[in-house]
Every structure is written in C-alpha cells, then in structure tokens.
Amino acid sequence: QVQLVESGGGSVQAGGSLRLSCAASGDTYRPYCMAWFRQAEGNERERVARIWTGNGAKVYADSVKGRFTISQDNTKNTLTLEMNSLKPDDTRMYYCAAAGSDMRCDDKYWGQGTQVTVSS
User: How far apart are CA 91 and CA 39, in angstroms?
Assistant: First the structure.
C-alpha cells in the first residue's frame, strides 16, 4: 500500500504561481511512474503531467505545456508540480497518482486532492 498526500493548493490571481507537492509513504518501492491529474466538478479527470521515475521522462497535457513542470525528489519521496502563469481555467481539484509497482504504469494509488482556484 502507498499513501499519497497532496499539499500546496490555494487561491491565486491569474498570472500567479503555485507549487503542489505530493508526499508518498508506505511500501518501499519506486513506482514505475507518477502523475498529476485534475478535475472540475462534473467533468472527467484530466491528466496534467506524468513522469517516469526511472529515466525521468516527462509528458504534459497541451493545455499546460510551458507553464507547468513536474519533478520528483526520490530522497524525500515527493512529487512536485510547479504551476506558473495560472489561468482561471486551471481552477480544478488536483490529484497525484502513483503506479502500483516498479514495472507498470497503472495509476493504482491516488491522493485525496488539493484545490486550486485561479481568479481573473
């Protein structure tokens, strides 16, 4: 079992920045991949960014490319999402996810989410 706890959400004006963190604890393995997702109430969950923990490869949604950066700190078991040039459309609940093993990218574990609100 892996527990994920997000933090760093809040309210910011358009153009501002926020830094989300996801602290992982529990089973001592390196997840094959981790990711940040977001979801607005009533809408489908959207993947924002993913990182493969072995080689550090990253992929971003087109809507956040050039503005958001995903990174990992393996020594602290922490996943981070740096969000810059925030827009009102970025207002969502943000979740981190981790694979259930070191061999497959399956987003098995999820945190409870942290709210990001961007005002115009």
Answer: 9
In terms of DSSP bridges, do strands 33-39 and 92-98 run parallel, antiparallel, or are they unpaired? Answer: antiparallel
Report CA-CA distances (Å) from 34 to 14, 17, 98: 27, 22, 4
* pLDDT tens sequence across 55-108: 999 999 999 999 999 999 877 789 999 999 999 999 999 999 999 888 889 999
Any bridge partners for residue 67, and if so which?
none
Per DSSP, the three-state class of 107 is coil
Does the CA dihedral 8-44-109-55 come out positive or negative?
negative
Q: What is the pLDDT of residues 26-41, one digit of tens each?
A: 877 788 999 999 999 8
Tokens linked to 68: 């958001």
Cα separation, 39 vs 46, in Å, equals 6
Do residues 77 and 69 make contact, with C-beta atoms less than 8 angstroms apart? no
How far is the first Cα of the chain from the last one, in angstroms, to the nearest whole number?
40
